[in-house]
User: Fold this.
Amino acid sequence: MSFIASRINRIKPSPSSMAGQRARELRASGRDIVGLTSGEPDFDTPPNVCEAVVRAMAASKTKYTDVGGTPELKAAICEKFRRDNDLDFGSGEIIVGTGGKQIIFNALMCTVENGDEVIVPTPYWVSYPDIVLLADGRPVLVPCAPENGFKLRAEDLERAITPKTRWLVLNAPNNPSGATYSHAELKALAEVLLRHPHVWIMTDDIYEHILYDGRQFATIAQVEPALKERTLTINGVSKAYAMTGWRIGYGAAPAVLVKAMVKLQSQSTSNASSISQAAALEALCGPQDFIAERTAIFQQRRDIVVGELNRIPGIHCHLPEGAFYAFPSCAGVLGKTTPEGKVLASDEDFVLYLLEAQNLAVLQGDAYGVSPFFRISFATSVPRLQEGLRRLSQACGALR
Ligand SMILES: Cc1ncc(COP(=O)(O)O)c(C=O)c1O
Assistant:
């Protein structure tokens, strides 16, 4: 019998973390890898945030804090929700954790019983189904077709709901597809959810600010206030503020859920780092203009990447509406043969071929629940992106 508990055998390591690690190892072994797997902005944390941290350390803000976050940070989060999302929360409805990931983990652990169902639209961010499995739940994957912009449709949601459904997970702008929902599209989903009062909504809004072509962000509790009493709205500083390593995420939900999540966190990690909370406070309260400037840079890169991808025979890419990923189809190269004589049968084969033949690291769509696709992160410099696209084109051109 294995010493390792069965819950660990039920899950797989995060494919994006593994790919990042593999690219670092290959680089260390001397290979010139172009890594386009990164889920983090290549920009630096803003200087005002770093300066605030120095002040916090000098003021000895280095001790345990309240488990669910410092009162100052929770107040700033309430203000953020009022400012950006027209949502009113009290401090008892806010929890700060070690990244948005911990908020998701806490919420599912606190609410999902053996065999409960959690609806996860595909493509999905890699961690949702595995955290559901850790919580003894059953991920119910609902395909969102490329023809529908990779968005969940009301009729597909209606069909997926059963008496065992605990949660619907929403994530927009979406990782990996970049799909976003308009006010009207969220309203259509909300109408279904209003008919099923036992279903809670977990909305992961971490890419809220990274939206293109002048789109406006909307979140479900704002679009349908009647759902606020069963919605967990998740956000964080990782993406918009280029603060992935600081590990601060937060959630807003009815106090009954927040209280349970704080209780769980009190027996696991306790408070998120005090210094990182001081950093997040400054990020949320300080200047915000740089976010739009950086988003404009992401949009230029998106246009370069998608334009170039669509010039490569066998590859087809839709235009992402937000986040910093392109999610092209590689259906047109499957069945072809590499110069080494291997027939490409899946997106995983294709991604391995790119790594071996061209030292190009991207992630297979299979990791996000949709094949045959692959994900390219454009959170990297234009010259590196261009080199990556050149290698991709060369790899595709060498197939027979
Ligand atoms: C959709 C989505 N949600 C949550 C996270 C986790 O973010 P954090 O760094 O706050 O844990 C990520 C990170 O890649 C993400 O892409």
